[in-house]
Amino acid sequence: MPGLYFEEFEPGAVIEHATRRTVTEADNVLFSTLTLNLAPLHLDAEYSKDSIYGQRLVNSLFILGLVSGITVPDTTQGTTLGNLGFGEIKFPKPVFHGDTIHVRTEILSKRESKSRNDSGIVQFRHYGINQRDEIVCTADRAGLMLKRPAAAA
């Protein structure tokens, strides 16, 4: 199981995720149309030529999903009971077709669960970073993480 147990997370630790993903036009168009976000800034190349960026922007919710998804194998795969929610989310720089995103995760804090003795809550901050080393997304997230089973301790 690649995910980490509650005990393995240490506040202040930083995880550099090895997975990188180049975002394509197909990703953006498919995600935007599947979610009915028909904003011309995502879908219409001619309209977007006159925007402040001069081209289409990748849908920010796709980027949030990509950034959080890239983190799963190294952090929560098989060791989480669930995502408890996102806190502050920011998109300080735009993402364009052809940008390659990698992710860094910082462990902000952790605490024992008050209602469950088999788990604890870990606060993560995920940074989505493009190939120019610009932060394109930050997302604070809380996960309910399993404790290591007694037999495995």
TrEMBL record:
SUPFAM superfamilies given in the database record: Thioesterase/thiol ester dehydrase-isomerase (SSF54637)
Every MaoC-like domain range: 11-116
Pfam families cross-referenced by the UniProt entry: MaoC_dehydratas
Origin superkingdom: Bacteria
Family: Belongs to the enoyl-CoA hydratase/isomerase family.
Record-linked PANTHER family: BETA-METHYLMALYL-COA DEHYDRATASE, MONOAMINE OXIDASE-RELATED
The protein's name: MaoC family dehydratase
Organism: Saccharopolyspora oryzae
